[in-house]
Each structure stands twice: as C-alpha cells, then as structure tokens.
Design brief:
The chain is of the alpha/beta class and about 425 residues long. Helix content is about 45%, strand content about 15%.
Length: about 425
Amino acid sequence: MKIAIVGTGYVGLVTGACFAEMGMEVYCVDVDKTKIENLKKGIIPIFEPGLEEMASRNAQAGRLKFTTALRECINDVEVIFSAVGTPPDEDGSADLKYVLEVAREIGRSMNKYLLLVTKSTVPVGTAQKVKQTIQEELDKRNVNIEFDIASNPEFLKEGAAIKDFMSPDRVVVGVESERAEKVMSKLYRPFLLNNFRVIFMDVPSAEMTKYAANAMLATRISFMNDIANLCEIVGADVNMVRKGIGSDGRIGSRFLYPGCGYGGSCFPKDVKALIRTAQENNYTMRILQAVEEVNEKQKNILFHKLENHFKGDLNGKRIALWGLAFKPETDDMREAPSLVLIEKLLAAGCRVTTYDPAAMEEAKRLYGDKIHYGKDIYETAVDADALILVTEWKEFRLPSWQVVKRLMATPLILDGRNIYDPRELEENGLVYHCIGR
C-alpha cells in the first residue's frame, strides 16, 4: 500500500516512519527544501526516542522516501495524510492556510480516486472546507474525479509517540463513505491485529473528539493545580488528596499531578481553539476559560514562591533551573512554564543558569547569551541562590543532595513537579518548597 504524508513535523514524521515500519511505501512531503535534504541524509529535526533509528532503517529499505513535490507521487498513492501545521491566530483560532493549500495542490494534481485524511488538529468543519477546496480546483480543470475526505486525529504523547502509534489505545476515524472506511480499516489493521480498536464516526465528531480529549486532560491538570494551591493555604497535602480521589474508579489517577502548569504544542493551542470555536457559534466554554486562566496563573507560581522567600529582593540573585522542555523526553519548549519563569527572573535582575538533557539548543536559539547554560545538573547549581526543578527528567530524580548543597550559595530548592521527598532534603540541610504541601 502506498501513501503520502504532507508535512514532516512531529506528527508527519512519526506517522510516516510508523507506517513504513509496517511495510507500506511512504512518501513524506514538505515544502522546506533544507528539511527534506537533511531527512534524506538521516538528520531528524525533532527529538523523539526511537524515531531516528526507525526512520533511518525504513529509508535504507526504500519504504520511506522524502520529497518536496507532492505532484510527483500523488498519482502513485491511495491515501494522502495532511499533517501540516495549524498555528494559532492572534484570536486563538487555528490558522488553516497550510491545510487548505494542501487541498488546493491535490485538486490541481490528482488524476484518480484519492482519500485525503486530515491528521492535523483542526476545528470542527475543516474537513468540509477541505472538500470544497478540492472540488473547486477540480471544477477549474473541468474534470470529474471521485475523492473522499476523512478525519484521523492523532493522540501521540511527545516522548512516547512511537509506542502510541504502534500500539494505540484507539484509532479515531471520521468518514463519509463506505469506501473510505474500507481503506482506513485496511491501513490500520496491521497495528491492531489482536484487538481492532478503530472507532469510526462522522467527520465532525472525529474533529471534535481530538479537541475534547485534550481539553479534558488540560482540565484535570488545572483542577489539580487549583486544589494544590488551596491545600497549601489550608494545610493539606495534595499528594494525599490525589491518592484519595484517584482511587475512585470514576476518577482514576492519571493527569492528577499538580505542578507549575501545562505547556507544549497541543493543550494550550487546542484549549484556545475550542474556546474560539464556541465563540464563533455564540456559545461560551466557561469551564475551559477557567482552565486556561488557572494554567496561565500557575506558570507564575514558582517565581512567586521564590520572590516570597527572598522578600521581593531578587536583583543579582543566581538562579539555577533544572529542565526547560514542557515535559520530559522532548526538546519542545512551546508554551513551556520555563519560558514564563525565565522572563520573570530576567526582569527581576536575576542571573539564570539552565540545564536540560534535550532542549539546550532550543533555549540557546530563544535566549542566546541572556542566560547561562550548564553542562550537567551539578555545574548548573554552582553558586546558585536557588535551584528550581521545572521539568521532571529522570536524571533529576536522585541527585546527590550533599553535593548540591556544597555547590550552592544558598541551599534553597523549589520543586515545580513534586518529585522529591521533603524529609530527605531537610535531613540534608536544604530548604525545600513544592506545590500543594
């Protein structure tokens, strides 16, 4: 089976590599000539465990190919996945210009039946715009070629995307015809031989499912952050509360971890886009507005704790940050809590030193020489007046606290992810602050 993936970003590359791994012939298409040339050389532009090896293996086997011209492969493939970016506009809505440009290119170039599958996260109603755009181009050519559209939103966790794609909890597919359903069933059957968990539905419902899923997860995070902040005020321990409510089968324990706010490419963008979609339809998403408000406020919590500790006098203080990416196992700093924290620290006159196992190059691109960069966790802590854990990478979990204390000017630890044992740090002579305890 031959397919094309348009867009070689996070979703496109993972999708292409995984389909190729299952024996399909995959063309990955992108207008960025430099990116395509690098991909041909085996240079992967994103950090995702296992992706570089999988892409290289399948490229060498001839199953994974890279090109800048969709028209060169469009009439050899049965399915085209659109995985181009949908960046947020200033009003929070998703910008569909790249999605619709793919549709125009298909309408201009196709000569036989095709199934166009939208993989990008797009607002409800986008598939119909895509369908209309393709038909307009066919009409301009005065040709009558059958085609179908489908929605197949991705549910990939950065840092575990390969596993999520190869062994999915479920695959959501929105279709309009039996023909499209048969093609999508054939496409995904190799991944789900033992338990075929493809959920077919109408296209608008599939588009909404992606937003609703991310909005629910974001809601759980903001809810727990709100509870954590109240726990501090009343003297409760949010970890105990989390265990207590998570043991309820109706609630469950996942995504009930308080912290310094969510970030990344999905939750912030999708919550904003869903709020905007509601506004365009004269409806107010009151809960999601509160979710977004809580999260933006939570991204400031570590700075406020630091400010309170030093009674507002932060000028000249040396602050060490462990972690920059919005979550472990990725170099993605989009909407990361670290961005808010760094900006506030710099504005307060602090000297900032950072370390992250994967996101250092991205940080250098964003901040240049405005901040300093440590080689490892210990060098970052040298002469620091405070050490702040922002991202819970595994290598941060069991440091030598005696070494950390000797290196620091002031033994102050702020734990933005609640991964440390307060007693252990206090026994080692460190002052410890976390969230919700």
